[in-house]
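Let us work through a complete example step by step.
Step 1: write down the sequence.
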Amino acid sequence: MYQVVKMEADFEPWWFFEEWQQNVTESVNFTRFDDALICFEKEWGKLRQQLPSYQSRQNLLAAFWNNEEQYWCEECDDYLQNYHSLLLLEDWETVSQHYYMPSFEQRNDFILPYSCSLRT
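Step 2: predict the structure and record it as tokens.
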């Protein structure tokens, strides 16, 4: 089973921090990879148009953000970036290397190093 997952969090999707699934805002299941990929590509295009910055990886994980969409974290004593992420997963895990797509290895901005001391 394949999932196309949207999530919002103060970390990028490739970190897969413990309890990352609590940040999922939407998910759709597919039995065929090709159907999941069509959905992923469509949602990727929408997020690319809606948010000015992005970093995408060939393993079909992508983070989109607006540098002005940050919030203050009392515990960290710092501002944290809010990321809108898109993932194409197989059984809630990163897809196997067989499905990697080099065309998605792209970015137009750099992600700042993660600053929350509670997760590092």
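Step 3: interpret the result. The first helix runs from residue 33 to 50.
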